[in-house]
Amino acid sequence: LQFACITAQNTGANLALLYVIDPVDFNTFFSVADSWRKEHWDKAEKLVLQLCEEVHKHSGIIPSIVFREGVITQEIVEVADEDNDINMLILGAAPDGSTNKNRILPTITAS
User: For 38-47, what is each residue's pLDDT tens digit?
Assistant: First the structure.
């Protein structure tokens, strides 16, 4: 996060934080899926707001926020494709130590 802040400061760029929530398995009961989704959205919002505060503290930048639900690699590519102002992606490790991060970069670069 600090590298992204420094890079944005040095280049005069904007900074956006993207949080992707895994898709809900619709084979479960809808009430369980709705509860799971709400719990994960609440967790995502709390984390991203903390990160926004950290970005502002380190750089004075107020980042934009993007939330998505889906497959993380697909969502990263889609966000980059949809916004013509994106010129650089800086990927950070998942704060929970998720091992999925090891598969993200090869998949994105293959896209």
Answer: 888 899 999 9
Contact between 21 and 41 under an 8 Å Cβ cutoff? The reply is yes
User: How do residues 46-99 score in pLDDT, each as one tens digit?
Assistant: 999 999 999 999 899 999 999 999 988 899 999 999 988 888 888 876 656 555
The four Cα atoms 54, 60, 62, 66 give a dihedral, to 10 degrees, of: -50
Give which of 60, 62, 59 is closest to 48, Cα–Cα: 62
Phi, psi of 9 (to 5 degrees): -60, -45
Instruction: Determine contact, residues 111/77, Cβ cutoff 8 Å.
Output: yes
**Whole-angstrom distance, CA of residue 29 vs CA of residue 96:** 27
What is the structure's pLDDT at 29? 62
Q: Which own/partner contact pairs does 41-47 have at CB distance under 8 Å and 24+ positions apart?
A: 41/67, 44/19, 47/19, 47/95
Q: Any idea of the CA torsion for 11, 111, 1, 59, to the nearest 10 degrees?
A: 30
